[in-house]
């Protein structure tokens, strides 16, 4: 695993642990979800990961694939969400992380979410 992938993985791990303090964000980091700005600074993203209700439903991440292309780490994974220990949905997440090898900080995240149809 490259250092850049390890940094992206720290963010993905924090989605499940709800502990954003250890994720290395640049001060001016931003996050876009389906084109909508959902993170406005590194501190905001850390707080959101740690306390944001939108992340509390995340139960697990699996089937993670990551590839580095220059300063961008392309990831794709399945995210399980639910309440009270019961899985209610699985979504496919594609995220591109801008993580320059020169500083190993997350500067930008672009996320796309695809809902999976439940098998009959």
UniProtKB/TrEMBL annotation:
Residue span(s) of domain DUF8021: 4-111
InterPro entries per the UniProt record, alphabetical: DUF8021
Superkingdom of the organism of origin: Bacteria
Pfam family, one: DUF8021
Protein name: DUF8021 domain-containing protein
């Amino acid at each position: 695993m490259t250092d850049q992938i390890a940094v992206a993985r720290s963010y993905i791990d924090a989605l499940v642990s709800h502990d954003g303090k250890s994720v290395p964000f640049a001060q001016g980091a931003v996050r876009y979800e389906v084109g909508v700005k959902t993170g406005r600074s590194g501190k905001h993203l850390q707080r959101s990961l740690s306390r944001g209700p939108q992340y509390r439903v995340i139960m697990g991440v699996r089937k993670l694939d990551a590839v580095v292309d220059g300063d961008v780490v392309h990831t794709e994974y399945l995210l399980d969400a639910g309440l009270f220990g019961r899985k209610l949905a699985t979504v496919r997440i594609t995220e591109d992380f801008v993580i320059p090898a020169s500083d190993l900080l997350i500067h930008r995240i672009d996320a796309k979410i695809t809902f999976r149809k439940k098998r009959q």
